[in-house]
Amino acid sequence: MIFKASDTQRMSLLGVSKTLMEVAFRCAALSRFEAEQNELTIRGKEGIKRSVKALIGQLNNNDDLLEPDFSTLYLHVALDYVLFRHANLLSAEERDILTTALHNSSFKDTLAKLSLESLSKKLNYCEYKNS
Question: Which domain of life is it from (predicted)?
Answer without folding.
Answer: Bacteria
